[in-house]
Hints:
Layout: H1 2-9, E1 11-14, E2 17-20, E3 25-27, H2 30-36, E4 53-58, H3 63-79, E5 84-89, H4 94-99, E6 107-111, E7 118-121, H5 126-136
Parallel strand pairs: 3-5, 4-5
Antiparallel strand pairs: 1-2, 2-3, 4-6, 6-7
Amino acid sequence: xxxxxxxxxxxxxxxxxxxxxxxxxxxxxxxxxxxxxxxxxxxxxxxxxxxxxxxxxxxxxxxxxxxxxxxxxxxxxxxxxxxxxxxxxxxxxxxxxxxxxxxxxxxxxxxxxxxxxxxxxxxxxxxxxxxxxxxxxxx
Length: 139
């Protein structure tokens, strides 16, 4: 019971986004994606975020997605606010999943401030994700 209360107190809602205040991973929907990251329906990619972004496309039934969630929370802590982390449930947001042609999950969309986003499909180690994110962000 105490653990459930701790988890509940670690989440809050800010501007329509459920924020995991302990790990800074934000659950958003396809409409909020347009507001905080980029207009995914536009013909040209135009970042709205002040930081690079990593988006996890997942589904609740996906076992690799479930295994990725704590890894991403650790990675979000590693970047300490220098990179924003979001997650989108593809079952609840089919239009954005179709727009990004998501066929396999988990899929990460890695969005540098300049240039086109890059995708990564599958489950990897924490160190490999950090290496790939750094490479994509040219760090």
